[in-house]
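Morning!

As promised:
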Amino acid sequence: MRNSMKLAILAIVAAGCCALYLFHELNGSFDYALPRRVLKVLAMVITGFTIAYSTVVFQTITHNRILTPSIMGLDSLYLLLQTVIIFFLGSGHTIIVNKQLNFLISVAVMIVFALLLYKFLFKKGGQQIYFLLLIGIIVGTFFSSISTFFQVLIDPNEFQIVQDRMFASFNNINSDLVWLAVGIVGVVTVYAWRYLRYLDVLSLGREVAINLGVPYDSIVKQMLIIVAIFISISTALVGPITFFGLIVANLSYQFFKTYKHHVLITGAVVMSIIALVGGQWVVERVFTFSTTLSVIINFIGGVYFIYLLLKERKAA
Amino acid sequence: MIQVLSLSKFYGKKAVVEDVSVTIQPRKITSFIGPNGAGKSTLLSMVSRLLDADTGEVLMDKTDVRKMKSNDFAKRVSILKQSNYMNVRLTIRELVSFGRFPYSKGRLTEEDERIVNQSLEYMHLTDMQDRYLDELSGGQRQRAFIAMVIAQDTEYILLDEPLNNLDMKHSVQIMKILRRLVDELGKTVVIVLHDINFASVYSDWIVAMKDGRVVKDGPTEEIIQSDALKEIYDMDIPIQEMGSCRICVYFNS
């Protein structure tokens, strides 16, 4: 019961943050400002949801609490894709200008890449998860090196557009994509709902999970695909910020102290909504855009990461 | 009944288990013994589907176990491996409740709670059921995991060296419980053991392996003989009778 109380309080705080962001200094501009703010809040909620969800799932599958899904190289692939398109087709091409098309293509390419990676690795069966991570690191580095190569050659004006996509930003969220993202995330979440209980068992380790009747390989594969979809969506929506997932996932473990994933994931999602919407409000109204949210997130995240490392060292 | 038919497993070109065929006797304790690296644990992992065999098959009541649904299989066969690393903090009761997962998928019914209580009782864990696993001694942890397997309520219980790191008192305690599971509840227990004296005193049937093959397979009295043990371990092991126990005195051979 205590955990559901905590969740309820967090949910109220999250709703408060959203209300604050939506209505503070609205000055009666219900027709112009409000719809725009609603879209922005929705985008932040979707981003927070996908990042938190995929990080908790990924950490359970890999049995590691300081990894983020970015280790699989998906966000480097996204940057490579954008760079290559702009390099060869130019920033004026439909694929860059039409954001929905760009979004769908990016998500599709990232998912196909993830599927290929898994297909190649799970063909042999067995415990290949660490091998998967290693390949992910190598491929990710490879992708970013090629991107850098193209970025050096590219026309400086075009580079501005590439650079714009390199950093996560909540100030110019691709609002046209929000409804599309909401749809995809909704469908995937409903589909994945029944697997959350399997995740509880997966955290006991592969052998215990198989013993308890979890079809391990198939669950892990499906979960990794869901992670890939979610990471693609959040990257395409605001840019690479998977580091953020590390913070909310670990805060959720510490705060709820349970193995139950529907609590852990819900907690992480609500916390990330508070951090993103509340943080964005602070950036816009308190700092009046003199800094960006991703800077703040990376700063707080870095401090928290160091704290985690020190704490784990003491525990060992 | 579980039948293993010409099962093999290769790592690269090296066969760790080669052409093994064994039948597990129902309602008995079957011990797998043999030197290190004989392939006992690998065989057990293949029988319990933790590992895929390269050739051969495992039949349970004439059905290939690989064709069974994961969940149905988990209601009939349970396995406990040597090391159980986990990165979540659980109490004993939470761990034992996981044993009911194949039946209730995490939503425990009254029936499940009753079985969990029984399992805790059986392993003498009721008093400490709310303690966390990482606060326990090796023996208590091992008992908690065995309680989980008992809660899983399967006909077959497979245990991979459950006596590892346990002192004499706890080893005897666990073997007595396994004996009770077979005699009172009609379970079939398959166990990998390193101490042949535990195998001799507690098991009904012994399968001896060496270099990936079965070298001896028979009732305990037939295997615990100096000449048979010579073949398995390459050691001259005299056997002493103490009451009803046949003890292998291998310490200075």
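The interface with chain A takes residues 48-52, 70-75, 78-81, 84-90, 94, 98-99, 101-102, 105-106, 149, 152 of chain B (CB under 8 Å).

Hope this helps with the figure draft.
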